[in-house]
Amino acid sequence: MTGAQPSTLPDWLRHQARHRPHALALRHKRLGAWHALSWREVAAAVEQLAAGLAQRGFAAGDALLLVSQPREQALLLSLAAQWSGGVAIPLDPQLGDAALRAALTHLAPRFVLAEDDRQVDRLLAQEQALQVIDANPRHLTPHPHPAVIDYRALALASREGFAPAALPHGDAFAFVRLNDDGHLVEQRFTHATLVREARHLVDTEKLHANDEAFAARAFAAASQARYLIAPWVLSGFRLNFPESLATRDNDRRELAPTLVAGTRDTYARVAQLVDDRLPGERSWRRRLIDRALRGQRGPFGPFIRTLTWWLITRPLREVIGFSRTHAALVIGPPLDAKTAALFDALRVPVRAWPDHSDWQRVEQRAQPETPQRHAADRASEQPAY
């Protein structure tokens, strides 16, 4: 790369679109079929969405709230908001009505993406002036409410090519959730922080453009931005969205990604899939895997390791979708001893990456205020690891 280094996520997207326009960037599954977008197509979609947002009043510093599970519309809209100098705020769709109302009051977003009709109705029921973008993944008849914008109708063709981000060093993402005491808390990440951390991850895990990543965690988790989205635009690997959280295990097995990022609960759930596939305790296959878990020693160790690999380990790796994985990341607390032993026996080295938090308690306001402008804050001071 020559010239100045890209400094924001949209800048990196523009870089990928210019240097690798036809390379596959994004795949998502709908109704059992995979759909793909190149880097040029992703950049064009983001730019058109940004133009549509701007035409409807979205400006630098505005907030775009995304009430959605992992899906390509949420990702593209996040980048569109950032393209215009705004901040994208993914929110857990399972958040209760009271917490949703508190989040809306605090954030005062200009637009909110709703993943389905249920979320559209929840948002319209709030006593706040909102423009709701309906993801409408099944391409149904547009919602009749005047405050609802169909996602497909939002995109506006642009004639001027790639426009620079309005706030190149402002916040990229913000996240809100309920803490253990039931209070709403928030943390923010600047472009500078995400780019710095992503570069460190890419270098440490030796990620490259031919990698396949699987985005099956909750979109509202901060680690999605830090360990998948930012590294994706920096390294140019392919990012894959499952059809739903319910199908993620089957979709991961079908893709066999090379990069997997999850929590200890993610790996414990996958370990349970392995355990369910193992035969009864008295079978010779079960005895082989048990010996692998304990580690093979003695004169027959190499023979047993080879036999275990071809008859047990290799098929099990294919069953859980880890047959090609070279970067298996656990975000936050490390694996428990049992799960760690199982993945070690499967010859899948799982490396722990921190999930440092700078959650700040949100002070509740009685009434919504004018949409606030978001500027860089102390998230830029978070250390890179």
Structure description:
With 385 residues, the chain is an alpha/beta fold. Among the domains are: 15-189, 3-Layer(aba) Sandwich (Rossmann fold); 264-353, no CATH class. 40% of the residues lie in helices and 18% in strands. It is built from 13 helices and 15 strands. The chain has helices at residues 9-19, 39-55, 72-83, 97-107, 117-124, 151-154, 191-205, 222-235, 248-255, 264-277, 284-294, 301-320, 337-345; strands spanning 24-30, 33-38, 63-67, 87-91, 111-114, 131-134, 148-150, 171-178, 184-190, 212-214, 238-241, 259-262, 327-331, 350-353, 360-361. A five-stranded parallel β-sheet has the order 4-3-5-6-7, sandwiched between helices. α8 links the parallel β10 and β11. α1 packs across α2. The two termini are 24 Å apart. 44% of the residues are buried. Mean pLDDT is 84; it is low at 367-385.
Summarize the structure.
This protein has 385 residues and is an alpha/beta fold.
Strand order of the largest sheet: 4-3-5-6-7
CATH topology of the domain at 15-189: Rossmann fold
- CATH C-level name of the domain at 15-189: Alpha Beta
Q: How many DSSP helices?
A: 13
Radius of gyration: 22 Å
Beta-strand percentage range: 15-25%
- What is the helix fraction of residues, given as a range? 40-55%
Distance between the termini: 24 Å
Backbone shape: globular
The CATH architecture of the domain at 15-189 is 3-Layer(aba) Sandwich
Region (Disordered): 358-385
Protein name: Long-subunit acyl-CoA synthetase (AMP-forming)
InterPro entries: AMP-dep_synth/lig_dom, ANL_N_sf, ATP-dep_AMP-bd_enzyme
Domain AMP-dependent synthetase/ligase: 13-131
